Amino acid sequence: MALETIEIQEKLTETFGENVFRFTQERDIFSFEVASDKITAVILFLKNDPTLRFHFLTDLCGIHYPDNEENRQFAVVYHLHNWYENKRIKIKAFINGTNPEIKTISNIFLCANWMERETYDFFGINFIGHPQLKRILNMDEMISFPMRKEFPMEDSGRTDKDDRYFGRTTINS
């Protein structure tokens, strides 16, 4: 029997109640949000449940929403795949903009180690419990996080590119 999205939703709401919400179907990917403090429990449940079997973490990334309210300025997005049923899901957990941090899942999926380091490197999101959270692609001396919207895309002296077209505000000196 094929795994249906309603079955995933029912199992999650039965186990986690109001900590999982905003269930939607976006093309062929079932999506929902999770309270950030419950992310490891939800990921473990999805991986270990004998019916759900989401054993593969496809991707983990960050998103910056500078115009959102303070406790929803950053999101960590997880893409999981059930190979048995060829079912994909997307999980989004919003976190605080002042102190962006969330628990690591590198102890659940080893591949999350690199993905979390990359997300830290570009967004400044701290993954609590990560075994070696440090910059992976940018210079260690770098004090900013280049994927945040306040980071300018180009040299401010350039006139041929405008950050406003890329959803970024221009930093005035």
From TrEMBL:
Its main location: membrane. It is an enzyme of class 7 (translocase). GO terms for cellular component: plasma membrane. It is found in: Cell membrane. It is a peripheral membrane protein. Keywords: Cell membrane, Membrane, NAD, Quinone, Translocase, Transport. It catalyses: a quinone + NADH + 5 H(+)(in) = a quinol + NAD(+) + 4 H(+)(out). One of its GO terms (molecular function) is NADH dehydrogenase (quinone) (non-electrogenic) activity. Its EC number is 7.1.1.-. Residues 33-155 form the NADH:ubiquinone oxidoreductase 30kDa subunit domain. The keyword Chaperone does not apply. Pfam families: Complex1_30kDa. SUPFAM superfamilies: Nqo5-like (SSF143243). The keyword NAD applies. NDH-1 shuttles electrons from NADH, via FMN and iron-sulfur (Fe-S) centers, to quinones in the respiratory chain. The immediate electron acceptor for the enzyme in this species is believed to be a menaquinone. Couples the redox reaction to proton translocation (for every two electrons transferred, four hydrogen ions are translocated across the cytoplasmic membrane), and thus conserves the redox energy in a proton gradient. Belongs to the complex I 30 kDa subunit family. NDH-1 is composed of 14 different subunits. Subunits NuoB, C, D, E, F, and G constitute the peripheral sector of the complex. This is NADH-quinone oxidoreductase subunit C. It comes from Flavobacterium laiguense.
